[in-house]
Amino acid sequence: MTQFVGAIDQGTTSSRFIVFDRQGAILAVAQKEHRQIYARPGWVEHDPMEILANTQEVIGAALARANLTAADLAGIGITNQRETTLLWDRDTGRPLCNALVWMDTRTDELVQHYLRDGGRDRFRDKTGLPLATYFSALKLRWILDNVDGARAQAESGRALFGTIDSWLAWNLTGGPDDGTHITDVTNASRTLLMNLATCQWDGDLLAIFGIPRACLPRIVASSDLHGTIRTPPLHGARLAGILGDQ
């Protein structure tokens, strides 16, 4: 009988994997920091491949410390730094550029552009959010406008958008080999693209921000069976939850 659950906690400065017992007590934990990349003033980036590698490493380390395997886990959950944005090639699994971290402010000029027609709260009724550099829509728009080939690949569906939850879920469930491209409502709600009334991507917002629907993940419930993990050391475990870290 499986008596444990595993949690991937992918944060702004580090990745952790925690194993909990049936009472919610921590049985084992492993953690590893990743680089903070400051290409220019106001720019903050992460290397998605480094985050993926670190996540796999801490999973293996925590399981070893607990003397457990994937078969001992009833399910796996992902919690993640919200708003951090990336776009990757679905055929190769390689990011088109580094991830733009939630605190990155390179989209300030885009924010000012959209403020001119309706002010900071122009999208609040639909999204619950003000216009700010924080959220993913404008980070994705910046990537589409500034990375060679990004918009064409996104429009064709070859390039996939996601926050870190999507990136990890896609890779863990197969990656280029039919990985599951999803995000949960708590992460989608911080993009400026999800309609709070429908919990779906909003067509008007996609048009306003110039975001191709073909690149977007499917929005799912935070707690549900989202697929089976197909990579070691969690091969065969069930991905059963996703939740933004706030």
Structural summary, described in words:
It is a single chain. This protein is α/β, with parallel strands linked by helices. Helix content is 28%, strand content 26%. It has 8 helices and 14 strands. The protein has helices at residues 48-66, 108-115, 124-127, 136-146, 150-156, 164-172, 185-188, 203-209; strands at 4-10, 14-20, 26-33, 45-46, 73-80, 86-89, 99-100, 159-162, 182-184, 194-195, 200-201, 218-220, 223-228, 238-244. It has a 6-stranded mixed β-sheet. Strands 4-7 form a two-stranded antiparallel sheet. Strand 10 (194-195) and strand 11 (200-201) form a beta hairpin. Helix 4 (136-146) crosses helix 5 (150-156). The mean pLDDT is 96.
Task: Please give the structural blueprint.
Blueprint: E1 4-10, E2 14-20, E3 26-33, E4 45-46, H1 48-66, E5 73-80, E6 86-89, E7 99-100, H2 108-115, H3 124-127, H4 136-146, H5 150-156, E8 159-162, H6 164-172, E9 182-184, H7 185-188, E10 194-195, E11 200-201, H8 203-209, E12 218-220, E13 223-228, E14 238-244
Parallel strand pairs: 1-5, 5-14, 9-12
Antiparallel strand pairs: 1-2, 2-3, 4-7, 6-8, 10-11, 13-14
Helix pairs in contact: 4-5
Fraction in beta strands: 25-35%
Secondary-structure class: alpha/beta
Biggest sheet details: 6 strands, mixed
Low-confidence stretches: none
Question: In sequence order, what are the helices and strands, one letter per element?
Answer: EEEEHEEEHHHHEHEHEEHEEE
CA radius of gyration is: 18 Å
The number of helical segments is 8
Residue share in helix: 25-40%
Q: End-to-end span in angstroms? A: 32 Å
Number of strands: 14
Task: Characterize the quaternary organization of these chains.
Answer: single chain
Write down the overall geometry: globular
* Average pLDDT figure: 96
**Spatial strand order of the main sheet:** 3-2-1-5-14-13
